[in-house]
Amino acid sequence: MHPIVDALARCALFKDFSPTGLEIVAAIAQERVVPQGASIFVENMVGDSLYVLADGYVRICLRDANGRDRALGVLGEGDHFGELSLLTPGATRVVSAIAETEARIVEIRQKDFARLQAKKPQACLKLILAIAAGFGRNLSENRETLRSLLLSAAFRSS
């Protein structure tokens, strides 16, 4: 199996894709190796790509008020990140992604995704629906935390 197809097949976003669908997406994807400690993207940078982690670990972090990076979590093989950039061109990154180890990533750039929409809209729709479903699951799983944060912020401003 082609390394990019293999990486996509291990990612939850692509679980409902057929082998042909994976090949279609792999044709627009690029693979690259990121050295340990290197930034894949940084907070407030304009984003234009979705990433799938083929191998290694990536730390997701947020800069605190003192300018220090605070880890929110570590992603491993098969995880995806940066997916909002496919749906909102020009939007800035909310977090930073830094290679915790040497990491092999698969990148799908927004401009390549846009070209694929004209040729294979079904594959793009399937990916968009998977991204939306993932956001819905994350929102449901984090509902109480989000509610507490919003209430806390509302009481502070009162």
Automatic annotation (TrEMBL):
Residues 13-116 form the Cyclic nucleotide-binding domain. CDD domains: CAP_ED. One of its GO terms (molecular function) is DNA-binding transcription factor activity. One of its GO terms (cellular component) is cytosol. This is cAMP-binding protein.
